[in-house]
Structures are given as structure tokens and as C-alpha cells.
Amino acid sequence: MSLNTTAVRIKVTLKDVKPEVMRCLVVPLTLRLDRLHLTLQAAFGWTNSHLFEFLAGEERWGIPDPDGDFGPQPIDARKTRLGDIVHETGAKTIHYLYDFGDSWDHVIKLEKWFDNTSTDGLPFLLEAAGRCPPEDVGGAPGYAEYLDAIGDPAHPEHEQMRLWGPERFDPNVVDRKALEAAVNALSDKWKPRRRVTRSK
């Protein structure tokens, strides 16, 4: 990676989930990790209802607990950029852990670097496969049980699970337009403001 690298294509896959849930995005290397978290929430369709951490090498980045009651604190994600992780750890794979109860592990592979490119319009969603599991379904094992139950009318929990989750849940159908709109909204929100200079 050269000093002029400005953006990277990432492939993000939800670990231990079938059918595959994957997103491919282009993000600026200067993206703060708290904003990368929001980008992944938008791209996957999560609801941003739980804590998160990024992990690479021996390090952890997240939002430190102000009371410090839960052991060693993560490095502050609001003060770290994606490029910092790459420079500090040399990692080509980063883990994004969302919801410490359900433990959704997203494997982020840094696939392609872009040098001297504009970061306007970034982050940008390139590909999306597989629908995001419902929140609080119990992680990968709970999700597998949920799919079994809603897919089998004879399953003892079929009706309960069908009513509990989103209506007509199909793990293979992705609302790509909605995901793109959510990611684009972040791109617009974070667009650098240009200063207007008035002539005297």
C-alpha cells in the first residue's frame, strides 16, 4: 500500500451463517471506525441497537465504557481511522463484532487498494448477497433454528417464529435499493463541507 492510497474495496461476510450474507463496499481509508460501524450497519440492514468492536492482531477498537467496569477498555473507535489499523497492524483481514450477546462476527477482507482517487460518494455499496438475520435471533445458531422453524409448517415453533420475525422473511432476498440508499445517506451526511469565501 502506497502513501497515496485513499480508498479500499472491502468484502464483508457474516461468519458461520448460511445462506451467505455478504456485502462488498468501497470506503475511504480516512473513515473513522465509528463511521465504519455505521456504514456496516447500513449495508447489512442491522438496526444499530447493540455494542460493537473491531479486532485486528491483538488490538480491539470500540466505544470505551465511561465507568470502566468491564475490564480492559478498547481503543476509542471515534479517534481511529481504518488506515490507522492497517498501518499499525498490517492486517488484511479485520473482524467486526456486533452485539456481544449474539456475537455476530463479520469478516472484513481488504481486497483492492485505490491510489489518488476521489473519496466523493464514499462509502459506496458495490454488491449485496443474502438478507441480514433478524436482530436478537440468538446469533448464528439461533438464526439456523429460526430458518428451520419458519421453513417448516410442521415445526413446533413455526407459528411463533413466523410471527416473531419480519413478515415473509426470505434469507435469499436482499432489498438492495434500500441498503444502497442507507449507505448513500451516510456518504451525503459525511461529505466534506466546502468553505465559501466572499470577495470584498
UniProtKB/TrEMBL annotation:
Residues 7-177 form the Plasmid pRiA4b Orf3-like domain. Gene3D superfamilies: MM3350-like. This is Plasmid pRiA4b ORF-3 family protein. It comes from Bradyrhizobium hipponense.
